[in-house]
UniProtKB/TrEMBL annotation:
Region of interest: Disordered: 97-148
Biased composition (Basic and acidic residues): 133-148
Domain of life (superkingdom): Eukaryota
Protein name per its UniProtKB record: Uncharacterized protein
Amino acid sequence: MSANEAMHLRPRRRRCINATHPTGVLFDLLPDDLLYHVLSYAARPTETVRALCHSLVPLNKATRRSVEVGRNDLWSLILEREYRGGVSLLVRSPESPCSVTDESGLTPPNNNSAGAGGFATQRPTRSSKRQRLLRDRTQTDPTQARDEVQAAHLSLCERTDDAHSALASLVENSDEPLSLLRLRRIFRDCGPDLAMNRRSQWGRTFLIECCAANFVCESVILRCVQEVAGRRGTDPNVWTRAEHPDAERPAIFFAVARVMPSVVRYLIEEAGASLAVEVTGRFRLVSNPSESIQGTFTPLGFAKALREAEVGSFGRSHPYWFSKLNKIIRMLSLAEKGSIITAKHGTT
């Protein structure tokens, strides 16, 4: 992991705004739980710390000081709600119904067979020494929760990068290509939680990698897209990075280029893909990857440009491919007009 990756959670050191800046004053007045709700509204999960450190901290010196050595409850909320399995699971109060009460991480079941008298004679559960040490250290060290969030975030990034590497070995593998079972195995082995909107070192999210997978049919890609975008909440509007010389683009452009009507339909209706986005750059043709089209396109404009470029000999020799592209164009046209697409895939 690069040095920039290890330090990206640290507040940027740039000149602070005057201490009387209204936003800084408002920050100082907000309680920790309300401030967390504001941050969670402004940023995706596991990205609230970046919004906190890079947007709010530079407001004034008091705000910076508050975040660096204070706001322990805020950091604890971030740790508990966004990085499951962190220290916060061990420092909950013993009275909490979700508290951890033994070294295995599980709460022992109550023995109700003795009736009401069973609770009177039941021995209290002793918390582990590790729990008490973590709880005491969190209370005495004001920076402990912040450091735990940073460690949890870096661990999350490392596990996500491992999952990206495993997925990359599938999308180009003809012997063991991508499948829903193999995709779930990657998430299970690298999980339990991953930064689903984090790009790989190749600049693609999990969703885009699935849409661009080779040696698999459309139905397999659709099931993987449903897993990534539907069950795991990947944002379909995150763009690629480092695609040069090709255009940077979101997932729906890959689905259109691969001519997958069912995937396009799912991204529009279920995942919330934007149709107003415009992409400028070069796009390779399906029939001849050495040739390309250039321009600024919406998803619908890109589909029409692709049809015009492929209308020659390739379109005549691949009528089924061409009919699916026409279906995508009709689908995008209806969606842009605000119509609700109700026809099942395969109807004309």
